[in-house]
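Let's practice the habit of predicting before peeking. Look at the sequence and jot down your guess about where helices and strands might fall. Then scroll down.
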Amino acid sequence: MSYEELLEIVKNRRSIRRFKPDPIPDEEIDKIIEVARWAPSGFNQQPWEFVVIKKAKLRSQIVEYCKEQLQLGHKMDTIGSPNPPGTAQGEPLEAEGGRFYIAPVLILLLGDHRNMEGLPSAAKYGTDYLHNTFNASLTCSFLYMQLAASTLGLAAQWLSSSQTPYVSFMIKELLGIPKYLSIYNMMAVGYPAAQPQPRLVRPRGEMVHLDYCGPESFRSDSEVMDFIKNTRS
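Done guessing? Here is the structure:
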């Protein structure tokens, strides 16, 4: 693969929130996970497990848990938040067409904390080091899932509400997931029912710094707030 091909894949990867209910062949899900399991991880500990959820009854129950959390998050956003409440990349909380509600497949990425025993002592006994190594490893795997779905022409959405205490607890109880595994994130996968809006990306010259760079090299508070408003409106 050339650099140009890789860049094109990265540019085209988007969170797509509207899905068709059409089923996805098992082979496509297998391809997503095959890519994800080759992701880099701290000291090659590969602390991941994948749970593919296809049964309609289970998906429906998980959706209800996520909806409850989304409504709470929406309520929080209406109190003292500089961001327009209930929006994500300009799309309303209950976008017509469903968001993840009718996606035919959900993929849970779990983290197995027991793998952290494979880290050297400097990592195991440094709380931040341990936490960051564990999360960075899972982030790599989840990003690989996203890129794989994009190359297959599938829509994929991050469902970070799955990480919240309530939703995480309820999903683990529903699916019988052991306590020593944590939910890192969940991805809804399906065929796209709509094209996402163009993505706002900061200029390269604004974010790349060379050698010494004092406060004057970085954005001011007001510039950061302006960018936040633009991405949430």
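How did you do? Residues 13 and 86 are 23 Å apart (CA to CA).
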